[in-house]
Please model this.
Amino acid sequence: QKEVEQDPGPLSVPEGAIVSLNCTYSNSAFQYFMWYRQYSRKGPELLMYTYSSGNKEDGRFTAQVDKSSKYISLFIRDSQPSDSATYLCAMIPGGSYIPTFGRGTSLIVHP
Amino acid sequence: DSGVTQTPKHLITATGQRVTLRCSPRSGDLSVYWYQQSLDQGLQFLIQYYNGEERAKGNILERFSAQQFPDLHSELNLSSLELGDSALYFCASSVEGQSYGYTFGSGTRLTVV
Model:
């Protein structure tokens, strides 16, 4: 079992839909949780960062962490075709700064 | 442009050969990280350098090595290449001590034939 599990998709949604992307993990030492977005032929870019449990909102994006269930989510409201990309979750244990990445979920938002 | 520069963008080489990938970190960043991204393994951490010194090591093969120079640019050397080494290789940089906020380059796509 990998430390971080993420469904590779693809997830195809119509424009304007609410998108839910998820990761599960097995290492209870993870304390920092991040979401990266990766466009084709580009490197990942940091979207959201949260520490421990709770929610964080940034515009159309909401990151949610449930440490008791070892489950994190990224919600995208009013999805746009420009949101089409691969979304990778990443997690860092306390005392470290090297993240473990999920394999990424491919999202396609069609007009 | 993320500020992290990787060259070359594409590389095609034969099995058994050796290649060098280059990375210039974002201005002010002292740490450089190398990652390998493949379809089956996802993004795998290889190695980190901080201000010229090796700081952390991940799943890096013995055939691979890296170094960081005084001007902070870094090189990843891959030798005795195998077909399975075909992947995207990313460099990222960060300010030391940050536990988030990697800035990635656009990667080098290596194809071993």
Observations:
- The longest strand of chain A covers residues 30-38.
- The mean pLDDT of chain A is 93.
- Chain A touches chain B at residues 32, 34, 41-46, 49, 88, 92, 96-104 (CB under 8 Å).
- Chain A is about 0% helix and 55% strand.
